[in-house]
Amino acid sequence: MTSQTLREARKYEEALEKTIRKEERPEFHLTPRTGWMNDPNGFSWYKGQYHMFYQYYPYESKWGPMHWGHAVSRDLLRWEYLPAALAPDEFYDMGGCFSGSAIELPDGRQLLMYTGVTEESRHCGSRRDSLQTQCVAVGDGVDYEKYEHNPVLDEKDLPEGGSKVDFRDPKIWRRKDGAYCCIVGNRPADGSGQILFYTSEDAFHWKFKNVLVSNFNRFGKMWECPDLFELDGKWVLLTSPQDMLPEGFEYHNGNGTLCLIGDFNEETGVFQEMHSQSIDYGIDFYAPQTVLTPDGRRVMMGWMQNWDSCGIRSPEDPWFGQMSLPRELSVRNNRLYQAPTKELDAMRHNRVEYTGVTVADTVWLEGIKGRKIDLELTIRLGDSQEPYQKFAVRFAQNERYHTSLSFRPRESILKIDRKFSGSRRASIHQRRSLVRTPGDELKLRIILDRFSVEVFVNDGEQVLSATMYTEQAAEGISFFADGTVNLDVVKYDLG
Ligand code: FRU
Q1: 133 close to 119: Cβ distance less than 8 angstroms
Q2: CATH code where residue 260 lies
Q3: Which of 36, 37, 39, 115 to mutate to test the pocket of ligand 1 (most atoms within 8 A of CB)?
Q4: Domain of 459?
Q5: What domain count does the chain have?
Q6: Backbone phi, then psi, for 11, in 5-degree steps?
Q7: Which atom of ligand 1 is nearest to the CA of 224?
Q8: How far is the first Cα of the chain from the last one, in angstroms, to the nearest whole number?
Q9: Which residues are catalytic?
Q10: Model pLDDT for residues 360-390, shown as the tens digit of each residue
Q11: Is 45 exposed, middle or buried (0-12, 13-18, 19+ CB in 10 A)?
């Protein structure tokens, strides 16, 4: 039975969606149907389509009592909205239906597992004394019924010292032997983060197994939105720590992302950490979640936003928050690699190519412009008599605005800078990342989609993501070097 709260949300979003023009949204990045969006939730393949749910407050473009928005797609790029799936309408989730995941049950129904928050919750305010528990809802891909015995995990299922107010974001999966597993983020007595591991025979009755990983105050504090999967012979744990501190150029302060690569024994629940890195090195990326595609690819999408820079958009805007591109993951040499999913190739048209262009000072190239493009650059040292100190590509550019990527070969630092993107607040506008230049070459693949840029460095060894809400008339692209650079450019329009 659909509650009054959910019916109202569905009616509201259907009406408001019609007031937003297509051009006011990105072309192939998912945005909320209306109002506010944060984390991806329940990213899954079900009944022949990808399902993406999201943290959602339809009534305003700011965070409020969380609903689950819902969209489906066949190619991960063109999304169609479905009615909101969950609303905060039970005593155990009145404060919000927080993040979670989805799985198909053996009887063909889909199960959503999420965090129910009781009413006192204030996400960004000082009071965080509400209870967080794990709940489930079962449905047919459109309508979901909350389980009558919710919550399925509560404070009784915490290890000693585990916080009942920071206990959230369950990620569920099924083991080869049929048993269900889930991991949940939690805050132990030392105030940092830990990931808890639970198992179940039927996805409704859960047992605490063990602490899968302890942060011990190494990477930030509370770990949010964990995901765990096997990939290329390793196990990968993704999580989003709060209150991070930078370690050189790895991680940045505030809400960050962390990837641990190691080994995991599904029987014993022991995760052995071997390597750690950031997931994204740009400004806007948080709380990613993955899906296994029917052809066996591990694809990740994240919230292309950061809690620390939400002020970049006005609450007057009709929508807030976008998902990142779907990115195909792989592990090579103990590093996480990301590439835009192959589905993006089908969107490419109008190829323009330049080979061996000498860039000395500012260069504009005929046919290289736009705000929905796929741009591949190979940057090499030009005339060795005149080595360059700085190379830059500027985009979303007109007389007034530009966003830039600049590279300083001496320090091997790539910097993204959106200071001149027309943003209305002095929020975070720059990030620097240490990159490699194998064979003295730097390769960048830059994807623009109206209000964002995602940069895949050296075939996805690193990625930098940022939103930019520059007026669309700013569509120029130029190249600059203060010595000489030898540049290859391939551009496609996307859409
Ligand atoms: C992460 C997060 C989650 C929580 C959700 C609430 O961005 O804080 O931990 O479930 O957002 O909207």
Answers
A1: no
A2: 2.115.10.20
A3: 39
A4: 346-494
A5: 2
A6: -65, -45
A7: 9
A8: 39
A9: 39
A10: 999 999 999 999 999 999 999 887 788 899 9
A11: middle
Task: For the beta carbon of residue 20, count every other beta carbon within 10 angstroms.
Answer: 16
Lowest mean pLDDT among 310-314, 365-369, 373-377, 479-483: 310-314
Q: Summarize the confidence of residues 78-96 as an average pLDDT.
A: 97
Same domain for 330 and 397, yes or no, is no
Integer angstrom CA distances of residue 9 from 65, 101, 190, 338, 362: 12, 21, 40, 36, 51
> Is the same domain home to 293 and 356?
no
CB atoms < 10 A from the CB of 432, how many? 17
Residue at 419 is within a domain: yes
415: domain CATH number? Answer: 2.60.120.560
What is the CA(383)–ligand 1 centre distance, in A? Answer: 50
Please count the other Cβ atoms lying within 10 Å of the Cβ belonging to residue 362: 11
Element (H, E) at 113: strand 110-117
User: Beta 144-146 vs 167-174: how paired, if at all?
Assistant: unpaired
Give the mutation target among 41, 67, 93, 99 for probing the ligand 1 site: most ligand atoms within 8 A of CB.
Answer: 99
Q: Which atom of ligand 1 is nearest to the CA of 303?
A: 7
pLDDT at residue 382 in the model: 84
Annotate 416-429 with DSSP letters as a single string: EEEEES--SS----
49 and 164 housed in the same domain? yes
Look up residue 125 and give its two tokens: 């305010």
Residues 251 and 245: their CA atoms lie apart, in Å, by 7
Ligand 1 pocket residues where CB is under 6 Å: 38-39, 55, 66, 98-99, 115, 168-169, 224-225, 286-287
User: At which residue do the structure tokens 């025979």 appear?
Assistant: 201
